[in-house]
Amino acid sequence: MRPKLDPAVAETRRAVRPALEGHTTVLIAFSGGADSLALAAAVAFEAEKAGIRAIAVTVDHGLQPGSVAVAAEAAETARRLGLEAHIVAVEVGDEGGPEAAARAARYEALRDAAYDYTASAVLLGHTLDDQAETVLLGLARGSGAASLAGMAPIVDEDEIAWTRPLLGVRRATTEAACAAQSLTPWHDPHNEDPQYARVRTRTRVLPVLEAELGPGVAEALARTAEQLREDAEAFAEMIDETIEDIVEPAEAGIAVSVAALAANPAALRNRIIRHVVASEFHVSLSRTQTLEVARLVTDWRGQGPIDLPGCRAHREGPRIVFTSATVSGS
């Protein structure tokens, strides 16, 4: 009689299985923590059955004493699971703060590794708990629907599928899967440091919400993210269908039809404004800035140009014209 498979192990393997379909080589972003360890173990099992090459890549950020040894131990753990394993050392800048800078360096290293090993997917170990934390942080910052939509299960970028197979799996399940397979995760001290907002959300905010509102808060937040992501995708499709008909080139910038903006509901109008600015000038507008631009359409009283990050907006007859801040200021 075959031994019964532990439920946590079974859940992680079921989650991973569809993420491997259609790929011949995949990378696993592997820190050695419980989430990435459970992911790696599940991928090792499923990839071997499917004849898929699976490579664990550990990024050494060099931010903690002993990081070289930690990365070496993670790579050895991956090899014991039957995976290829590689370590990539990166230099972390300071743009956007330590978390954002480390994330940018890590993703660049993983992208380069995917190209080096001709991998068509990079598997990330984010869980349902990570998703809930992301939604709460976005809510606290007033970041809007795009932020509240959280992390997408799959993002296709430059021929690489950035995939989060465990996004519907609780962190407790990944920890249980590691324990059931006698795997010892590495505990990142940064995950316990309260100077980080995400750590405070994880260790203080979510437990209070669960205690005061009852269990299921994390799942509810994850469902909210999924629903908002569906809405965001629908809006994106609407914008793609209409944008070419309502914009035209302008000197040192781009122009948008006032009539077309006015004909759309506020939610779509505001998204078009943000989309145009992001596409042309590669900057993001806050809600306040977006609404000021929208007033050039809905509440036009002869007001002057609006200075925005990287550009300037002004009304010119039947058009809203966005020009480069460099040109506008010259």
UniProtKB/TrEMBL annotation:
Leading EC class: ligase
Source organism superkingdom: Bacteria
GO MF annotation terms: ATP binding; tRNA(Ile)-lysidine synthase activity
EC numbers on record: 6.3.4.19
Coiled coil start-end: 218-245
Family matches, as Pfam families: ATP_bind_3, TilS
GO biological process: tRNA modification
Alphabetical list of Gene3D superfamilies matching this protein: 1.20.59.20, HUPs
tRNA(Ile)-lysidine synthase substrate-binding domain: residues covered: 257-316
GO CC terms in record: cytoplasm
Localisation per UniProt entry: Cytoplasm
Signal sequence bounds: none
Positions annotated to bind ATP: S31, G32, G33, A34, D35, S36
Record domain tRNA(Ile)-lysidine/2-thiocytidine synthase N-terminal: where: 26-203
Reactions listed under catalytic activity: cytidine(34) in tRNA(Ile2) + L-lysine + ATP = lysidine(34) in tRNA(Ile2) + AMP + diphosphate + H(+)
Similarity comment text for this entry: Belongs to the tRNA(Ile)-lysidine synthase family.
NCBIfam families per UniProt: lysidine_TilS_N
Function statement: Ligates lysine onto the cytidine present at position 34 of the AUA codon-specific tRNA(Ile) that contains the anticodon CAU, in an ATP-dependent manner. Cytidine is converted to lysidine, thus changing the amino acid specificity of the tRNA from methionine to isoleucine.
Free-text comment on this protein's domains from its UniProt entry: The N-terminal region contains the highly conserved SGGXDS motif, predicted to be a P-loop motif involved in ATP binding.
This protein's name: tRNA(Ile)-lysidine synthase
